Amino acid sequence: MTQLAVSNISKSFGALRVIDKFDLELAVGERHAVIGPNGAGKTTLFNMISGWIPPDTGRIEVEGLDITGRSPQSVTQAGLARSFQKNTLFDGLTVAESLRLAVQAHSPVRFNFMQPARKFGGLQQRAHEIARQMELESVFHRDVKTLSYGQKRQLEVGLALACSPKILLLDEPAAGTSPAERATLVRLLTTLPDDVTLLLVEHDMDVVFGVCSRITVLNYGRVVASGTPDEVRRDPEVRAAYLGESAGHAGEAGKS
After folding, report:
1. Whole-structure pTM value
2. Over its length of 256 residues, how does the chain's per-residue pLDDT go in tens digits?
């Protein structure tokens, strides 16, 4: 069953075509990475799929539902969640508070302000479950600002999981982490439930090859290769892009 279908989407900023006629289909439970040099259009692609910017052309569907151009909230309600390349955490909260609020934001009880506190026990239980899943139980009651950078990245993934998504988009989840922290993150991502579809943007190839069974390579907004890790490794266009023959696109400043 196709869970995410991206058909012929394009995006331009002025005269610059950032994404050009991009197609992608993900089956339920698939682990798929989008890679490419800086400026290839990867974050712009994520922003369109998750509703932060509309595509100029094309269509995006979640299980047949057209979400093209919908708001991020509407896209989340359709079953898609994402993390961001830079941390978007609140340092003044604890891990427990962060996860509980994230769970509450996607729960029907958030609208009932007259509910007694004991009625929110299920939210706290779900927060505990996510902390356990992301190996954050030992820091559950610590302030976010005291976490290591790797733990903050784990919390980012946990916040995305709080809405129980069908599709999880992770934008460079290993960025800035140490080798040991990356190894932990890879292990945690490989233990995600089989019914959660994962789309990953990541520069670290150890993470990509350790998590994903299929890879799509972008360069100048166009797909230059798509296949298994071995197929992508052998592709001459991919080698050319990463060796710099067609990298260093100056147009998409501030985007990756």
Report:
1. 0.84
2. 899 999 999 999 999 999 999 999 999 999 999 998 888 899 999 999 999 999 999 999 999 999 999 999 999 999 999 988 777 788 889 999 999 999 988 765 544 544 554 455 678 899 999 999 999 999 999 999 999 999 999 999 999 999 899 999 999 999 889 999 999 999 999 999 999 999 999 988 899 999 999 999 998 899 999 999 999 988 888 877 665 544 344 334 444 5
Q: Are 26 and 197 in contact (CB under 8 A)?
A: yes
DSSP string for 44-100: HHHHHHTTSS--SEEEEEETTEE-TT--HHHHHHTTEEE--SS----TTSBHHHHHH
- Spatial separation of the C-alpha atoms in residues 206 and 249, rounded to whole Å: 24
How far apart are alpha carbons 16 and 255 in whole angstroms?
12
Question: What is the sign of the dihedral through the CA atoms of 2, 224, 232 and 208?
Answer: negative
CB-based contact 214:189 (threshold 8 Å) = no
Question: What is the C-alpha to C-alpha distance for residues 10 and 59, in angstroms, rounded to an integer?
Answer: 10
Q: How far is CA 32 from CA 93, 120, 141, in A?
A: 32, 36, 33
Which tokens sit at 205? 């190839």
Measured CA to CA, the distance from residue 243 to residue 113 in angstroms comes to 56
